Amino acid sequence: MTVEQTLAELVGFDSVSSRSNASIISYLRQRCESFGLLVNEYPHVDVNGETKINLVAHTSLCGPTYKSEPQAEAGAAFELALVGHTDTVPFDPAWTDALRLTEADGKLFGRGACDTKAFIAAALTAIENCDLEKLKQPLALVFTCDEEIGCLGAKRLAEAEPFRARHAIVGEPTSLQPMRAGKGYCLAEITVHGREAHSAYPHLGSSAITRAAYLIGAIDGVSERIRDDRHDAFDPPYTTLNVGLINGGTAKNVVPGECRFTLEWRTIPGQRSDQVLNIVREVVREMSEGGQDFSCDIDAGRFDESFETDAASELVQFLERASAKPSGTVAFGTEAPSMIALGAEAVVFGPGDIRVAHRTGEFVPIAELNECVEILRRSIETFCM
Ligand SMILES: [Zn+2]
């Protein structure tokens, strides 16, 4: 099968994160079994009752006799893992061709065509083009669920640790530039409490919105303070903060009793992911001690680690040579930290541009898709033969 045909089949599955990914996994399982790979499924039922599955397919752990080997052993160590997420973001129902791969101007359009089914199609084709009998080191394909809603599938694998890996190429649209580091992603919801009163008698109450405004002003100061901590491989080269949502009050003539806002921060590698939160807690403590009748709750919902793989790593060096591009960094969340937790040197790499991902009409350039097949095939030969 050509890589375009495989991509067309993958795009044909509606694998939006809110749905079960069982059907696309069943397809991938069959493809992997047809290459003679051993497969293991790691299913669970998510909070909405949908079955979600991570699939790990691999060659023999003990030399080229892979076809006669029974099932995978727990604690297997793979030399190279090619990792792709099976889920996509939702699509506008008005995009009637979202699940039908269409070609125009050397580009292939469809939901997931870029993020990240193109990488999966390239990985399958690369394996199909390899003589697996010649592999001396074990190779794995890792297909995950729920990446688009917080890399949940990869995190489950990192926790259960059904395998270890020495090198991992994590598929994401990077226009075939190897990305060796990424910022972390953390999120907290902050609820500021006040006391309601009739707005004609504000001295009888205490405005939660005014207090939240003071706190947000102080948080702005925090974001200035932490800029001294720099990582020059990133743009901007420091941890960034954002208050993205705010909601408070009940009516124009009521002194508001509650105000909530979200605080998001993206940490540079080397900085602890709870550092910002600890500074914010300190600010809150100072404000409450300042006699301002101040109270607030901080609900820290998410701490996705940053990651960094050494520029001198064998995998970074290989991908720089193969793509003829210097390694870079990404500011969006990926499954790389989970692969690092599983022992791997991890690099994020794949065809397509992240700036067109998640959009109606996302696409992958056909030339990049084919080049990715070739680079992945060479990576298999380099690391596993
Ligand atoms: Zn993605």
Can you describe this structure?
By secondary structure, the protein is an alpha+beta fold. It is built from 9 helices and 19 strands. The protein has helices at 3-12, 22-34, 117-128, 152-160, 208-225, 275-289, 314-323, 336-341, 366-384; strands at 38-45, 51-58, 76-85, 102-104, 107-109, 139-144, 163-171, 179-182, 185-193, 197-198, 240-242, 246-248, 254-255, 258-266, 295-304, 307-308, 328-330, 345-349, 363-365. The two termini are 24 Å apart. Zinc ion binds next to loops. Zinc ion binds at residues 85, 115-116, 147, 172.
Biggest sheet strand order reads 1-2-6-3-7-18
For the biggest sheet, the summary is:
6 strands, mixed
Number of helical regions = 9
The coarse silhouette is elongated
DSSP strand count: 19
Bound molecules: zinc ion
Strand percentage, roughly?
A: 25-35%
Low-confidence stretches: 63-71
Q: What average pLDDT do the residues reach? A: 94
Helix amount: 25-40%
Euclidean distance between termini CA atoms: 24 Å
Q: Give the helices and strands as they follow along the chain.
A: HHEEEEEHEHEEEEHEEEEHEEHEHEEH
**Helix/strand class:** alpha+beta
Whole-number radius of gyration?
Answer: 24 Å
Describe the structure using short key phrases.
385 residues, alpha+beta, six-stranded mixed sheet, five-stranded antiparallel sheet, 9 helices, 19 strands, 26% strand, elongated, binds zinc ion
Task: Write a short abstract of this structure.
By secondary structure, the protein is an alpha+beta fold. 29% of the residues lie in helices and 26% in strands.
